[in-house]
Design a protein that fits this description.
38% helix, Multidrug-efflux Transporter Regulator, Chain: A, Domain 2, 11-stranded mixed sheet
Length: 506
């Protein structure tokens, strides 16, 4: 008999791989016993395997080198065991498939999990998870996965498609080792529907990368029973930890110890930073909002430093719950402004979310302006000039050891920034691209249009229209030179939004 440490040393596989092979039924569950005087370990209990598992591991390795998928390897080894048992028990009348089932178990024994006494103090991290884990956005599109999830659940593939629309997790699960069973596919669908319902209950107030240390813990778990490729039952406890950036999903075998898992998921800031650092750039639909504090240089010069920082912090503290309510994701911005990204959601229109968020921020800014006018007895009006745009761009992250920032590359964010520069006195300008993403009902709730001059040079507001930027300003003026980048962009001004019984809100 080989203990788990000897098996890993002689076979050259990791503990995570050993657990994966047991979970898939490629190796038998270990015999757990006290190691006694075994000098190789001080553990109180160890898992022991028969000597022939080394040959089975070599068979798995050679099959993988030949390009076989894990699901095919599982079926191949299961058939080998059935044939071996049949040859050994020809006259007993015993069902060889039942004997093979005992030989290849799909439910690993708990002591096979690493212990502090075997491998030193255990610190569970995303990198060290030995069971399948992946992260999806709220459109259920994959954004991260570990090797265990790729092999055991999602099917073997080299890399994810660049376009998020081709990353549906249910499509991957249906093509994975468990996807051949209709019952399994239905169970996967029901599981992710439950995740969506749980998310809807606490959509307001979900902690994110920008708000660490929250006391809330939106982590749910459900039991899940799947049918393996060999026809047996595999029992899991599925954990879903919801962040504003997406849902982290962890498939844990019911028979393994998971005392460290929930503790790790509670370290929300560490978890999300760890995941985002590994996130590959993706091509995705996105609405971008850029808002700048008008005359920030002058305001900074008029206020004592401590009061200026107090003002900026008040703006951020007031706006953060609004961004969270509409699923905004913070982007990088220099100075007294803000950049937020709005990505597709399963239960709301991301473009309308961006529009409503910008409108509520405008209202909140008016209240802040009045407070400071009373406080300072000044006539200054505080404005956030806002630009909104929509497009399909690359989303990635920049990160150093302690900081991770979302970044969108492309003209969508650049044009939103120019629109923010174009806006004055707290105006909210949106591109025709963004307005085109609204449904007819959503568009009917928005009063928008362009101010023009009639023949007598009087200003007339023409509702539900757009204009190119070049027709609204003098591009020959030196101060408008930077607007040449968006000269041909069709835009409109958002005046107010009809919130139903609440009436129109400016």
């Amino acid at each position: 008999m080989l203990n788990s440490l000897e098996l890993m040393r002689q076979s050259g596989i990791s503990r995570a791989t050993l657990h994966n092979y047991i979970a898939l039924g490629l190796l038998p569950k270990p015999l757990v016993r006290n190691p006694g005087d075994d000098p190789s370990t001080r553990a109180r209990q160890m898992g022991y395997f028969p000597q022939d598992v080394l040959a089975r591991i070599e068979r798995i390795k050679s099959s993988k080198k030949e390009g076989m998928a894990m699901a095919d390897i599982v079926r191949l080894l299961a058939q080998d065991v059935i044939e071996a048992v049949t040859a050994q028990t020809p006259a007993t009348g015993q069902n060889p498939t039942a004997a093979a089932t005992r030989e290849i178990s799909v439910r690993p024994a708990p002591p096979a999990a690493p212990s502090a006494t075997e491998s030193g103090p255990l610190r569970l991290t995303i990198d060290k998870l030995s069971c399948p884990a992946y992260m999806v956005n709220y459109k259920l599109e994959l954004t991260w996965y570990n090797d265990e999830a790729r092999v055991e659940l999602l099917g073997s593939f080299d890399k994810l498609p660049a376009d998020t629309k081709e990353r549906g997790v249910l499509d991957f699960l249906s093509k994975g080792p468990y996807g051949a069973s209709q019952n399994n596919r239905e169970a996967f669908i029901a599981l992710h529907q439950q995740m969506g319902r749980a998310r809807a209950l606490d959509a307001v107030g979900i902690p994110s990368l920008d708000s660490p240390g929250s006391a809330t813990s939106p982590t749910s778990d459900w039991p899940l029973t799947l049918t393996t490729p060999t026809g047996q039952e595999a029992h899991f406890r599925v954990y879903a930890s919801r962040f504003r950036e997406g849902i982290l999903v962890k498939f844990a075998s019911e028979e393994l110890g998971h005392s460290g898992l929930l503790g790790m998921l509670e370290l929300r800031d560490d978890v999300i930073r760890n995941l985002l650092k590994k996130r590959l750039p993706v091509l995705t639909d996105v609405a971008v909002m850029v808002a700048d504090l008008q005359s920030s240089v002058r305001i900074c010069s008029e206020l004592p430093p401590q009061e200026y920082f107090e003002l900026i912090n008040q703006i951020w503290a007031t706006m953060e719950p609004i961004f969270r309510r509409y699923y905004g994701t913070h982007g990088k911005h220099v100075g007294g402004g803000m950049v937020y990204y709005f990505f597709p959601q399963p239960d709301s229109n991301y473009a309308y979310n961006a529009l409503c968020c910008a409108n509520q921020i405008r209202q909140a800014m008016r209240k802040i302006s009045k407070e400071w006018q009373v406080r300072k007895n000044w006539l200054n009006e505080l404005y956030l000039n806002t630009g909104l745009n929509e497009g399909q761009e690359w989303l990635g992250v920049f990160h150093i050891e302690t900081k991770v920032e979302f970044t969108v590359l492309g003209d969508t964010i650049n044009h939103a920034g120019r629109l923010s520069d174009f806006a004055r006195q707290g105006a909210l300008w949106a591109s025709k691209n963004l307005m085109g993403k609204l449904s007819a009902d959503e568009r009917n709730k928005v009063r928008f249009g362009v101010r023009r001059q009639d023949q007598e040079r009087r200003e007339v507001f023409v509702k539900s229209t757009y204009s190119r930027v070049s027709e609204l300003i003098d591009l020959d003026s030196p101060r408008n030179e930077k607007m040449r980048d968006i000269a041909a962009l069709a835009v409109t001004e958002i005046i107010e939004i009809n919130w139903g019984s609440g009436g129109l809100r400016r």
